[in-house]
Design goal:
Blueprint lengths: L4 H16 L11 E5 L2 E4 H17 L4 E4 H6 L12 E9 L1 H5 L6 E8 L2 E9 L4 E6 L4 E3 L2 E2 L12 E3 L2 H12 L10 E3 L4 H10 L4 E7 L2 H13 L3 E4 L14 E7 L2 H12 L1
Parallel strand pairs: 3-4, 10-11, 10-12
Antiparallel strand pairs: 1-2, 4-5, 5-6, 6-7, 7-8, 8-9, 12-14, 13-14
Helix pairs in contact: 1-2, 6-7
């Protein structure tokens, strides 16, 4: 069922080189449009999703496709995620605003889901030409090596990704001297979840909180890669694992190196 991960990596890399990178910092005004308020799409998103869909469908005949741009046109496509057949989930350019602004933090994300479970995931960063991939129960890999990120021994050495509101909540806790100096000192936000998942896999980022409508093309691959690197993640509301489902509900996903640090940050951020 699971195709050769290196073959999928090559497909993504080829599309990046032929379709995405030639448009980087060269987009004309008419090649950028607004899908809905605050959310843009470029010609590179559209062309890359088409190219990836064709190649991945050829690689795994009979598989369905759930792509970010396809769903924008027809949300009913999401229903296939609840079926038993394999589904490719595609984010052709994650971090589109960065891409359109000529900033380097953007990625291409692909996941393979069967029966509602993510069995494989890929994150490709075109600027660096790097790909992280994972197969369920077989670890996460980059450049021929299995990823085993080192975790700082204290949470005050962690680096995390938080929205502005939760940065402010963390800062208030620091001012009130909560948790005996164990609060992290550095918070970042790339505006590209693919880049942040890649950073967690490499150990340069230790935790992240994502809230709102958790779109499967943003999170399915990254959650699997994070888990295969030994990380712990769960929905804040229920404590249950993230599942790439057919509906987009308002939910909160918290990812940390382990269950203990997950509870620590949940208590700080959500109470």
């Amino acid at each position: 069922m699971t195709p050769d991960p290196l073959r999928v990596s090559a497909i993504i890399r080829d599309v990046a080189e032929s379709t995405v990178l030639p448009r980087f910092q060269k987009l004309a005004a008419h090649e950028i449009s607004e899908k809905h308020s605050g959310d843009i799409v470029t010609i590179a998103d559209k062309e890359a999703e088409h190219a990836l869909s064709m190649a991945l469908r050829d690689l795994l005949p009979g598989a369905a496709i759930v792509g970010e741009e396809g769903v924008a046109k027809n949300p009913d496509i999401m229903a296939v995620l609840s079926a038993d057949a394999p589904v490719w989930i595609i984010d052709p350019v994650d971090g589109t605003q960065n891409f359109a602004d000529g900033k380097p933090h953007f990625a291409m994300i692909v996941a393979l889901v069967v029966g509602g479970k993510t069995i494989a995931g890929w994150i490709h960063e075109p600027i660096d030409n790097t790909t992280i991939w994972a197969i369920a129960d077989e670890g996460a890999h980059e450049g021929g090596y299995r990823l085993k990120p080192q975790t700082p021994n204290r949470t005050n050495k962690f680096i995390g990704s938080l929205s502005r509101h939760y940065r402010e909540r963390l800062e208030r806790a620091r001012i009130n001297q909560c948790e005996n100096g164990e609060l992290p000192a550095k918070i970042i936000r790339y505006r590209c979840v693919g880049a942040e998942y890649a950073a967690m896999a490499r150990g340069t980022l230790q935790f992240a909180r994502y809230g709102g409508r958790l779109k499967p093309w943003d999170h399915a691959a990254g959650v699997l890669i994070h888990a295969e690197c030994g990380g712990f993640s769960a929905m804040v509301e229920t404590g249950e694992p993230y599942v790439p489902g057919p509906t987009l509900k308002e939910r909160t996903l918290l990812l940390t190196p382990g269950e203990g640090s997950w509870k620590f940050f949940r208590d700080i951020l959500e109470n």
